Amino acid sequence: MITIDMTMPLQIILILLLAVILNIVLYRPIREILEQRREKVAALNADVEKFEKNRRQRLEEFERKLQEARAQAKAEYEAVRSATQAESSEKLAALRTEVENAKADQLKQIESQFAAARTELQGQVNAFAQAMAAKVLGRAL
After folding, report:
1. Residues 87, 92, 97, 99: is their CA dihedral positive or negative?
2. From CA 100, how far away is CA 1, in angstroms rounded?
3. Rounded Cα gap, residues 56 and 50, in angstroms
């Protein structure tokens, strides 16, 4: 059994004194180091969040600028395309007009040559008819 004598209060005092000394020498510095680590981790987490937010903003800005550049390039492409189509349509219309004029000129030349040949041949119809009749009949008319 436990006997209460002078050594028991002395042991209690020694244990309390050891707890106070350990608190001063060991536990308090460890708690301070742990608190400093917690603060450092919290600061690093805040920095990480700030960098992540900055990254998201830059990515959004990049995507926005990329879309603007794409829209601008598409608009420029459409403008150049429509200008090219208009220019080619104008050239094609001018070429068609030129071809139609050349065709009309050639038709007029052919008609005039045809009319000249007709008048020339009509003047020679009687001579051809007499020559054919003479050949068919075998004598001169």
Report:
1. positive
2. 134
3. 10
- CA angle at 119 for the pair 113 and 122, rounded to the nearest 5°: 135
Residue type, 130: Q
Using the Cα atoms of residue 14, residue 17, residue 23 and residue 25 in order, give the sign of their dihedral. Answer: negative
Distance CA 72, CA 81 (A): 14
Q: Model-level pTM? A: 0.47
CA distance linking residue 129 with residue 141, whole number of Å: 10
pLDDT in tens, 54-94: 999 999 999 999 999 999 999 999 999 999 999 999 999 99
Distance, in Å, from the CA atom of 82 to the CA atom of 77, rounded to the nearest integer, reads 8
What distance, in Å, lies between the first and last C-alpha atoms of the chain?
A: 180
CB 2 within 8 A of CB 12: no
